[in-house]
Amino acid sequence: MAWTIYISFAGALLLALLPKGRPALARWLALAVAVAGLALAVQGFVAGMGQGRVTLVDLPWVPSMGIHFLLAADGISRVLVLLTGLAAVAGVLFSWNIELRTNEFFAFFLALIGGVYGVFLSFDLFLLFVFYEIAIVPKYFLIAIWGSTRREYAAMKLALYSFVGSAMVLIGLLAAYATAGSHSTGLVALAHAGLPVSFQMWCFPLVFTGFAILAGMWPFHTWAPTGHVAAPTAASMLLAGVVMKLGAYGCLRVGIWLFPHGLDPWGFSFIGIGSWRDVFAVLAVVGIVYGALVALAQTDFKFVIGYSSVSHMGFVLLGLVTLNQIGVTGAVMQMFSHGIIAGLLFAIVGRIVYDRTHTRQLAELETMHLSRRLPFVAWAFVIAGMASMGLPGFSGFVAELQILVGAWKVAPWWTMAAGVGIVVGVAYTWRALQKAFFSDVRPSAHALEQEHGHELAAITWPEVTGVGLLAGVSLFVGLYPRILLDTIEPAVKALLAGGGQ
Amino acid sequence: MNGIPVLTVLTVLPLVGAAIALVAGKHARAVALITTFVSLALALVVWTELPVDGSIGLVERAAWAPSLGIEYHLGVDGLGALMLVLAAIVTLMSVDAAHRVHHQPGLYFGLVLVLEAGLFGSFTALNFFHWFLFWELSLIPAFFLIKLWGGARRGPAATQFFVYTMAGSAALLVAFLAVFLSTGSMDFPHLTLLASTGELEQMVAAHLGAGVMGWPVMLWLAVGVLAGFSVKVPMIPFHTWLPAAYAEAPSPVTMLLTGAMSKMGVYGLLRIAIPLFGHQIAQIRTPLLVLAVATVVMGAWAAAAQKDLKRVFAYSSVNHLGYCLLAIFALAVPAVGVAAQTSQAAALNGVILQMFNHGITAAALFWFVAMIQERTGGHRGIDDFGGLRKPAPVLAGLMGIALFSSLGLPGLNGFVGEFLIFRGVFSLAWVAATVSLLGLLVTAVVILTVIQKVFSGPTPEHWASFPDLHHGERLALVPVIGLMFLVGLLPQLILDSVNPTVVNLLAHWRF
Residues A14, A26: contact at Cβ < 8 Å? Predict the structure, then answer.
């Protein structure tokens, strides 16, 4: 599985060196690399079934500081690597029409993918942080160069938020390294180091918040919707689909694993909040409900999806702080599920619809009768919307169900508030569906003229393939959740037990 | 049955048919006809293979997601099998009736078949997850069938239908989540067993606390589940989505909505609500009976006030399913003595029979409306017609039979179910039964008014050449009308298989 990282960076390098003016070659090369990565991810996933943590590579890097180039994979990593592979392939497919500086686009794209693979497979704290930072840079360029609406602003905002988060993480990590005094930056070693409780109490919120910024935790979420909207489609698919998961993954792998006592009660309580766990649960629930309500009020189709990501990521965070088997498993499931579904939604809205209609305003889309003119897209969105609403049969249902069950065991009122978020989720998805595709509004004379003027471009094979891939995966996981659960559950159990074996 | 997972095959078959129909273009209806015909044959096979003791048979089990209590668990008893047969018949009728779909026929028949799969799936599921999957699956095609092929005000009608049913589903989901949290199980037979010994109540109280806002948690859960099903049936005051949806949907789709989908609600009450929450429902029996009686009486009265044939039959459906609700809530009482038990059994037999009969009769009535609309270019006002029996005697005769079946004339199917219901309810809740008689009376007035205004009286000149049913239509209708006589004259054909199930069900219910 380590090769997923190497070939992605090699592909990025190759693309950067490729002669310009050969966009077709760049595309196929990028697709080949992404497919190879997916194949490795699938192979690693299948081979890893029923196994615990497996070390992939362990080379000394900076021996004097105990830093190793240590790659390993447990069930959580395997599932998220699989997600990254899927998102990468879909992302390339939905970037098939990029004509501007094609080589560089795919080079950045693959570099980002490589960084993400790296984060999910690193079991050395320093290495993890390096990959985490590597992922931020290509993200900035992808938005700043190929983006749309207010792209410089969005790119800068995203980068600043990410760097602030990283800085918080870095401080926490250095402090942990110093406090542990074990002269190793290996995650396993640190988890066993037995950091003092008082230290964990202040270090945990710092690290957790740092990572949670990238996961879109309210009130640090504001980079997400603007970033998603400004990003080119493939980048928003990766942003929402995978990059936000980096944050959530960091919260789990670093925050909760290394600082388990950071979630212990403070010993006093203020308006019912008596620990960092309560604080983050409240923020998660607020994010769920707030994101959903704001999505309900949007006029821009892509913002609806952008805010829905904030809401869905709130479920991930809620699942994490339940700290019980079923809730955390649900959180990992939700990471996977949301990665797939958000990718699909952004692809439909940002790429398939926008490239043909050149508008994302729901009010304008209302007059276009897209269900008649682009039936494939309309039905693709129906499926994606059903998945996003969390209807049974799709991956989101199982994930959110587990999170709710887990949360209920801890504090029923979190669950009830999150349930409100689900209901609003149905409402905004359904509102967007109605307005964008199935509206009965009579078109204005001008719109009619345009409709006759030029036919909307036909759907292309990369689009059909991409939609089929993502929708198929969500449906398959929804109908047969054990395929992932059997891999996630033992890993979560080990992680919550502390030792990680 | 010889190791063939017949219930799985039955559920998957329409989905396969739907996939083929989607790409079959103008041959989609033929594909749908073949699929629904084979489905009906399979459903009848299931009916004949039922265990004679009324227990759940044809069971299929497989692990699915054990950590969430999700299991692939299918099986049917007399109730489930009868609903399968009904769903298969109604879908076949609906496809037969829909021969004028010119706009995207592939999609239309694909959605109809997905809806059929949803019905089959929810009537055979014995695990909440599986059941809920198909319950929701049937909602999506129904929404789009109304939204894309409906009448002038289809948009709001579809929306209202969707929002109401979704809200009901949310209530159901929350209630079941709570049950799962307390018991770790989503298995209907297992939960029924727990409820019959009173353990379920203790487990819920132990996990979720004794009470919320003065009521036991279990009672809240019962209310949530009831709300979910009340929307689907519907029960007053959750019925307001229905007239618009039934009127705006194309008539063949209305046949499915009223003939089969409304039964999902009653079925849910019998398979889920009463078995799990029978004791709680017994506690709030009086207000529920009031609502049921209101559904019966006000449904009939509202039907009397309508001018649109489809709305007349829509409200009349509310009224007819109200009898089912009436009987279900009336029998939710601890039975002391043989007489009370016999009454309960009679009422429950009546409910199940009424579900079947209403499905057939209501679907037939909407089919007749479709035929009238085709001939008149969309007219369906009750005052638009007159004296149609002269130019179209066959239509008038056959529709008359269906109308009398709806009225509950002895010798036709409608009578037997309602008779058994009243036979049971009179000794279990005589006040409710007496007031509900008013509903019977008003229904009779409604039906006779329809017959009088549409078929009798002088024939207006512009309807003088009103075309009668052609051979194809007669051929299609004869089995349906025949079925009405058959069930009316030989109800034991159904009751022989239903009664053991009734005994079995009542033995496991605790009020």
Answer: no
Percentage of chain A modeled with pLDDT above 70: 96
Least confident of A210-219, A413-422, B44-53, B448-457: A413-422
Q: Could you give the C-alpha distances from B148 to A335, A383, B345, in angstroms and in order?
A: 35, 17, 43
Structure confidence by residue, pLDDT tens digits, B267-280: 999 999 999 999 99
Query: Mind listing the pLDDT tens digit for each residue in B207-265?
Result: 877 777 778 888 989 999 999 999 998 998 889 899 999 999 999 999 999 999 999 99
Q: Per-residue pLDDT for A460 more than 50?
A: yes
Tell me which of A142-151, A279-288, B16-25, B345-354 is least confident: A142-151
A420 touches chain B (CB under 8 A): no
Predicted TM-score (pTM) of this structure: 0.85
Cβ distance B148 to A404 less than 8 Å, yes or no, reads: no
Query: Residues of B with CB below 8 A from A480's CB?
Result: 64
Runs of H (alpha helix) within A411-460:
412-436, 445-453
Q: Is the pLDDT of residue A372 over 80?
A: no
Q: What is the mean pLDDT of chain A?
A: 85
ipTM over 0.85 threshold: no
B85 near B47, Cβ under 8 Å? yes
Interface with B, mutate which of A430, A437, A488 (most B CBs under 10 A): A430
Which residue is closest to A482 within chain B, CA to CA?
Answer: B65
Report the residue of chain A nearest B207, measured CA to CA: A409
- Domain spans of chain B, in order of start: 285-511
All residue ranges of chain B with pLDDT < 50 are none
Q: Which residues does chain B have within 8 Å of residue A401's beta carbon, measured at their own beta carbons?
A: 68, 177
Dist CA B194 CA B218 (whole Å): 13
Run of H or E including B112: helix B105-124
* Chain B contact residues (CB < 8 Å to A): 63-68, 70, 104, 107, 129, 132-133, 136-137, 140, 144, 147-148, 154-155, 159, 162, 166-167, 170, 174, 177, 180-181, 208
| Cβ proximity of B266 and B321 under 8 Å | yes
Distance from CA of B171 to the nearest CA of A (A): 10
Rg (Cα) of chain A, in Å, rounded? 22
Q: Are B68 and A405 a contacting pair at CB < 8 A?
A: yes
Phi and psi angles of residue B150, each rounded to the nearest 5 degrees, phi first: -80, -175
Distance between CA atoms of residues B340 and A200, nearest Å: 67
* pLDDT given for residue B15 in this prediction: 94
| Residue A422 contacts B where some CB pair is shorter than 8 Å | yes
pLDDT value of residue B205: 83
Count other Cβ atoms within 10 Å, centred on residue B496: 12
Q: Nearest-CA neighbor of A329 among A121, A122, A486? A: A486
A393 in B contact zone (CB under 8 Å): yes
CA distance A451 to A489: 52
* Candidates B65, B154, B167; nearest CB to A398: B65
**Residues ≥6 apart with Cβ < 8 Å to B115:** B91, B138, B141, B142, B145, B256, B261
Which chain B residue's Cα is nearest to A385? B140
